[in-house]
Amino acid sequence: MRHSTSQSEHNDITRALNDLKLMLLDETAEPKALPLSLLRDITNDFSEDRRIGTGGFATVYKGILENGLSVAVKRMYYSNLDDNDFHQEIQCLIEAKHKNIVRCLGYCFESHGEMVRYNGKFVMAEVQHRLLCFEYLSKDGSSGLEWRMRYQIIKGICQGLHYLHAKHIVHLDLNPTNILLDDNMVPKIAGFGISRCFGKDETIYTETLRGTPGYIAPQRMDSTKITIYSNIFSLGVVILLS
Predict the structure, then answer these.
(1) Fewer CB within 10 A of the end CB, N or C, for the chain?
(2) pLDDT tens-digit map of 174-230
(3) Are 140 and 55 in contact (CB under 8 A)?
(4) Are 124 and 114 in contact (CB under 8 A)?
(5) Is 2 a member of any domain?
(6) What phi, psi does 169 have (nearest 5°)?
(7) The pTM is what?
(8) Cβ 49 vs Cβ 21: under 8 Å
(9) Taking each helix axis from N to C terminus, what angle separates 147-166 and 229-240, rounded to the nearest 10 degrees?
(10) Among 116, 135, 154, which residue terminates a domain?
């Protein structure tokens, strides 16, 4: 069901839409806060026919702008991701600007009261909306490609990962589903939901082991310490399966 919009909301959508169009044309533009009303509008209220992917933490929808350009809108599941994880992902995405890293255009974190059904009755509840907006990439995977092209894709992934490590960003969930391709078959690393950014001399630990089975480094099974070597193991598995 589409949400009705007031004139004020319509004006907000128009302004934010213009900002988003400009960001698509300017690769140096910083990601900015986007209103939920805009993201609802360009995804047709997160309709099923706009859904382009689903994972353990979010569903991704195709957003279509008035000028025919498209973006990807990632809508987080409320129960599977806490605020700190969301803030960490935004921080990593703002820090990461490279041709082999998916480009983040904006983010949305809104909380407001909504009538929801509970035990057969409607009650007022606080509902949180956490979303990210990215450049739209229509391809994924490198299977079936000739070796020269697969080599170029692997090289691009390595360059993107090297950049992340130089920026002290540990991805922690590098796997084929988090590697997308643009129209020119340039790979871009995505899926920063459990990534961590840290200072040059900082050591970070995690209490919960998360990631994609088969791509998690064995040393992470017995240690809570996070290092860039966790990504290297994942990269090796990705290359073997390419």
Answers:
(1) N
(2) 999 899 999 899 999 998 878 888 766 666 666 667 788 888 877 776 666 777 777
(3) no
(4) yes
(5) no
(6) -115, 125
(7) 0.82
(8) no
(9) 170
(10) 135
Of the listed 173, 183, 201, 222, which one is catalytic? Answer: 173
Calculate the CA dihedral of residues 31, 94, 53, 18 and round it to 10 degrees. Answer: 10
Neighbours of 45 (CB within 10 A): 13
| Length of the chain counted residue by residue | 242
140 tagged catalytic: no
Helix, strand or coil for residue 104? Answer: strand
Residue in the block written with tokens 């959508």 = 13
Q: Is residue 1 assigned to a domain?
A: no
> Residue 234 sits in which domain range?
139-240
Task: Give the CATH number for residue 181.
Answer: 1.10.510.10
- Tens of pLDDT, residues 76-91: 876 555 677 788 788 8
Judge whether 120 and 161 are in contact, CB under 8 Å. no
Same domain flag for 173 and 117: no
